Q: What sequence folds into this?
């Protein structure tokens, strides 16, 4: 049972305390976190990931306050701990710089650049001095060299403080004061028109110099790497990124960098070192967190489960201990909507034999088509009723839907419906006798179960989505930990809201359904890009969703569980390529191939799928099977918000291709095919 | 298109953000269970969910804020204007402050009705929010004409301000004024007697101004006819598509209202409001929101409970 607390309440790592960062930490793939982050490596790492992919959690976990927590729990003195770790993490949020202040207001770019560099130098130096100040109280060996270190640090300045501070506190105060003065000048330059600040230190002198001095003076730090962990790289300007890129390029041991950025956050790789560009594999390594988690489904599932397990444990959400996979699975009410279960039949209202809404719909379609001469082989009412009878599998609505799907498929091929219906009835009977046999019918059941279940529910007037249980939520989160946490937060909120009792026995289907819809809407909002590009991306995503929804709920879906599309990317308009890239960077689209050769057309295709978090908004599948090929022209159209009419035409023809009786063919062709029932009756 | 799921989501958000968690999911279900998903072609549940999603709830925070507005706009503002007008439009702040302190000291605030009623209940918040001295608040029995004591009579007081939460029809205010205003005026003919409800319907304000004896009548929030749920110009149904229907909702409200509250099935004197406060739900609100179960509907559950007055 569950207590009425929401263990997923905090969804962003910046809102977690140091203790929570530590206690909620989960290694990816067991214990390879160090392999990924390589805290002792001097090679800078660009840690990229979509919004909510866990970058901040990673960077904070490897920062000094967290190291200190771990040292304390192991009763290690700070220097001994750092010596053991082999690194010291100096974490800063670049968003905290308010970096947009360093531009415009009548000052040249050069002036701003110099000021920013000086400001940044002072800022990082203070972060390091804070750590030293924290350590010196507990470390006599550090205290013994404090005054000498201060002298040497001051010597790093081109224009050192007049009264050289003799301790870290004094040096920290001096730097803080210099920064305050600079803040004041920067904030008021619009009125003062000029700066009186003197830049007192050359770029990199403190950032690289202080670690060198510490390494030379403090024995325990001799093998320690000083890792500047700069988070939210996307929040600074291109020029400022260029400066940090320069630091990365010019870095001096024992200092290095870990830079956290969103997928679209790197504006430049250029440096001020002769305008050279930093290159992956040369100046830095790159890790893309969400790709990494997505690449290995098993690893993501394991990681995600442990994340959930840890949250439940830390916040004491479950009354049972310990929290096992089974106990987490049992939290959620998961209906058995398999073909052999009875819940689906009950959910659609236990209809009388042959009276379910899906039969009514088929009967209507066949009737109209027969009257219009477009139902091959169907000549009279008796035949129609016989066709309907062939579709019946008592108490197994999913198999009835599979039968109807098969009938539509035969219909689309122009085959005689009475004959096809009889064959389908026999195949269904064969399947029921031995469901495990490898028959084409069994394959259809396997492939189309999700789409047909969705259709059954919709036809019965149930607006219930089909996403239940922990596996579904992990799958839907597409390797983004925050998406998973937000989804569970929403589900928990609904469960708490709806439960009368003191404890929650199980999280109901309804709470799960509402929670995933909330997450879907949250995702659409939170990932969106402002401005014209954002509108175009949103339009494209919504149009794809509509096309896929049209397929899922059509008479004869061309693809089963359709959530993706393929296209010859090289033939797309440049603007569309850019939009697709942006949609991918914001995790709306997930690239699932990199230009494989299509077996049928021998062309190089790019394949994408919609992020499954969006699926509930349109009642789409979450486990992708189908990929629909689109022409580059169609994709250009889909991403163009100004071509609404053309898109509506495309959508109509898309649906018509899957809708009986004409299945998108020209009337002439279909009429010619069906000119006389005898023709096809005898042509088989 | 609005459906049950989207309305439930909206209601949950309202519950968390505005309704002070008065309607948790299970209470909503309890209420909804009394309605049918299909009654002669009407999806009563959907219609009622939509109606509920338009319910105007004012929690403690909003009521406290409105009480600040009431004091600022209807009490303090007019006094300051009067001081300036009487002193040749002075901008001498010291003079204004001194005169205002004197004028405020010669003002008394009362709730409408007896001490157990909602008008009186508001006075506590009113005093706190506007940082007023307790001595400015009196009981009816301390009014001139009721008592022979002169503490709050002509020598010390110029204004008597009656505060109320809602004036929906004007009945109560008119009844009350007939006794209380006449009594005050008999003992203190120059006194200004004002009636300031937080909320009032346009029609009730007109009626009270016309039929009651107050010198001044004003409300902070004026509810025009568009706030009546099923009025022709109802704001709740001005821009909705099928299956949401005013007629279907009215039919449902009237049907259950007739069973629950036969004398006033659409609220007291057919006020048709969908309005509630943290301290109570007025009987002018549709009974389907607040009425208790009875023998005819024993399984009924209200969604915004009303604490009725017992008249003995």
A:
């Amino acid at each position: 049972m569950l207590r009425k607390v929401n263990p997923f309440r905090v969804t962003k790592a910046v809102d977690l305390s140091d203790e929570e960062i530590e206690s909620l930490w989960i290694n990816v793939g067991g214990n390879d976190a160090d392999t990924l982050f390589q805290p002792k490596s001097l090679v800078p790492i660009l840690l990229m990931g979509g919004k909510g992919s866990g970058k901040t959690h990673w960077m904070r976990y490897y920062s000094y306050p967290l190291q200190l927590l771990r040292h304390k729990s192991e009763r290690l003195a700070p220097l001994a701990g750092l010596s053991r770790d082999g690194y010291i993490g100096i974490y800063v949020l670049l968003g905290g710089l308010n970096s947009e202040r360093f531009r415009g207001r009548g000052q040249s770019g050069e002036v701003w650049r110099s000021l920013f560099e000086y400001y940044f130098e002072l800022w990082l130096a203070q972060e390091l001095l804070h750590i030293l100040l924290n350590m010196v109280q507990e470390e006599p060996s550090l205290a013994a060299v404090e005054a000498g270190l201060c002298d040497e640090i001051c010597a790093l300045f081109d224009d050192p403080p007049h009264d050289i501070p003799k301790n870290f506190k004094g040096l920290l105060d001096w730097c803080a004061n210099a920064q305050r003065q600079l803040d004041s000048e920067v904030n008021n330059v619009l009125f003062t028109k000029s700066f009186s600040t003197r830049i007192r230190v050359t770029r990199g002198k403190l950032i690289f110099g202080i670690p060198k001095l510490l390494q030379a003076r403090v024995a325990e730090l001799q093998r320690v790497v000083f890792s500047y962990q700069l988070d939210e790289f996307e929040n600074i300007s291109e020029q400022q990124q260029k400066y940090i890129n320069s630091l990365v390029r010019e870095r001096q041991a024992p200092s290095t960098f870990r830079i956290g950025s969103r997928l679209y956050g790197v504006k430049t790789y250029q440096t001020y070192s002769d305008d050279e560009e930093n290159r992956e594999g040369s100046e830095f390594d790159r890790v893309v967190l969400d790709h990494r988690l997505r690449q290995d489904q098993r690893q993501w599932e394991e990681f995600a489960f442990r994340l959930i397990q840890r949250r439940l444990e830390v916040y004491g959400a479950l009354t049972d201990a310990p929290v096992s996979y089974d106990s987490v699975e049992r939290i959620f009410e998961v209906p058995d909507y398999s073909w052999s279960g009875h819940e689906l039949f009950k959910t659609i209202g236990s209809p009388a034999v042959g009276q379910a809404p899906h039969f009514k719909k088929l009967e209507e379609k066949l009737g109209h088509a027969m009257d219009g001469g477009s139902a091959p082989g169907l000549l009279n009412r008796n035949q129609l009723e016989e066709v309907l009878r062939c579709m019946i599998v008592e108490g197994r609505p999913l198999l009835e839907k599979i039968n109807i799907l098969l009938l539509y498929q035969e219909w689309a091929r122009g085959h005689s419906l009475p004959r096809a219906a009889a064959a389908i009835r026999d195949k269904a009977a064969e399947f029921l006798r031995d469901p495990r046999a490898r028959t084409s019918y069994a394959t259809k059941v396997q492939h189309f179960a999700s789409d047909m279940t969705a259709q059954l529910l919709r036809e019965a007037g149930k607006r219930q989505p089909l996403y239940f249980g922990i596996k579904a939520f992990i799958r839907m989160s597409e390797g983004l930990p925050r998406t998973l946490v937000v989804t569970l937060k929403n589900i928990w909120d609904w469960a708490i809201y709806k439960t009368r009792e003191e404890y929650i026995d199980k999280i109901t289907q309804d709470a799960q359904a509402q929670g995933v819809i909330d997450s879907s809407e949250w995702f659409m909002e939170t990932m969106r890009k402002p401005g014209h590009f954002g509108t175009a991306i949103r339009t494209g995503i919504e149009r794809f969703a509509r096309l896929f929804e049209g397929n899922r709920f059509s008479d004869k879906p061309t693809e089963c569980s359709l959530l993706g599309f393929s296209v010859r990317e090289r033939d797309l308009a440049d603007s569309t390529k850019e939009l697709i890239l942006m949609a991918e960077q914001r995790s709306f689209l997930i690239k699932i191939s990199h230009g494989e050769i299509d077996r049928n057309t021998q062309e190089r295709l790019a394949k994408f799928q919609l992020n499954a978090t969006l699926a509930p908004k349109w009642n789409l599948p979450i486990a992708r099977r189908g990929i629909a090929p689109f022409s580059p022209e169609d994709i250009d159209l889909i991403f163009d918000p100004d071509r609404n009419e053309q898109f509506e035409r495309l959508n109509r023809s898309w649906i018509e291709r899957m809708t009986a009786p004409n299945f998108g063919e020209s009337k002439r062709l279909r009429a010619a095919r069906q000119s006389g029932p005898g023709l096809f009756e005898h042509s088989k | 298109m609005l459906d049950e799921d989207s309305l439930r989501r909206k209601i949950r958000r309202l519950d968390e953000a505005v309704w002070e968690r008065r309607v948790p999911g299970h209470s909503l279900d309890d209420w909804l269970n009394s309605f049918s998903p299909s009654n002669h072609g009407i999806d009563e549940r959907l219609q009622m969910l939509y109606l509920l999603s338009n319910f105007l709830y004012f929690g403690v925070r909003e009521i406290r804020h409105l009480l600040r507005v009431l004091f600022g706009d209807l009490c303090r503002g007019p006094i300051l204007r009067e001081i300036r007008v009487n002193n040749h439009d002075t901008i001498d702040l010291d003079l204004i402050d001194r005169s205002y302190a004197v004028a405020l000291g010669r003002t008394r605030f009362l709730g409408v009705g007896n001490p157990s009623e909602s008008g009186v209940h508001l006075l506590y918040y009113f005093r706190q929010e506007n940082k007023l001295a307790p001595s400015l608040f009196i009981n009816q029995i301390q009014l001139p004409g009721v008592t022979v004591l002169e503490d709050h009579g002509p020598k010390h007081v110029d204004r008597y301000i009656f505060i109320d939460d809602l004036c929906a029809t004007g009945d109560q205010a008119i009844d009350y004024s007939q006794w209380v205003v006449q009594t005050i005026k008999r003992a203190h003919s120059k006194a200004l007697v004002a009636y300031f409800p937080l909320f009032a319907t346009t029609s009730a304000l007109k009626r009270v101004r016309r039929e009651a004896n107050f010198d001044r009548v004003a409300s902070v929030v004026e509810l025009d006819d568009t706030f009546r749920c099923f009025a022709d110009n109802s704001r709740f149904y001005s821009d909705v598509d099928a299956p949401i229907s005013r007629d279907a909702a009215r039919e449902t409200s009237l049907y259950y209202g007739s069973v629950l509250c036969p004398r006033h099935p659409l609220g007291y004197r057919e006020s048709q409001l969908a309005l509630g406060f943290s301290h109570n739900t007025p009987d002018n609100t549709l009974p389907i929101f607040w009425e208790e179960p009875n023998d005819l509907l024993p399984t009924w559950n209200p969604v915004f409970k009303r604490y009725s007055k017992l008249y003995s």
Remarks:
- The mean pLDDT of chain A is 89.
- The interface with chain B takes residues 463, 494, 497-500, 513-514, 517-518 of chain A (CB under 8 Å).
